[in-house]
## 1
Amino acid sequence: MQKNKPIHEIRYAAVRASIWENKSDKSTYYNVTMTRIYKSGEEWKQTESFGRDDLLLLAKVANQAHSWIFHNQTKDQETTT
């Protein structure tokens, strides 16, 4: 069984936005999940919790994700019309 993968990822330091593509009969739309990665001992983990020092990076990643989605939705609309 193959696990779904994001169509695009944006990362600044430890903050990552994963962009997921979803298709319906009428259109394509995108969702974003935001995570922070960290190392605990020898193991890499991720969380959806952000500290004060992560918030500006979170805003930058969110802005980049928004721009990527906007660009790709515009491109999708141009190819379907």
Note: The beta strands are 8-12, 15-23, 28-40, 43-47.
## 2
Amino acid sequence: MFYTYMLRCEDNSIYTGITVDIERRLKEHKEKGKKSARYTAVHSAKKMEAIWESQNKSLASKLEFNIKKLKKRQKEDLILTKNLERYLKNEIELDKYKYVKN
């Protein structure tokens, strides 16, 4: 399984990424070490806001790419509603993703 996640930072910004291990990846972001993303090393990771599961890296990457294209307001709405269809119905195959955390 691969996961696409949205992570809230201390400055209220949102980082989006993919991983195979959510707990490990959150720890890496928070520790700000070599395995942390440059963005979260500067903006300080706070908590996972949303996580979607998919079968492979390609699907996870496609969702990540499309979420990153959204405006901040849309990302906030996506976190609240978990509704991929609202913003991404023409971009991804919605049935390939399962929401696993709010």
Note: The domain at 2-101 is CATH 3.40.1440 (GIY-YIG endonuclease).
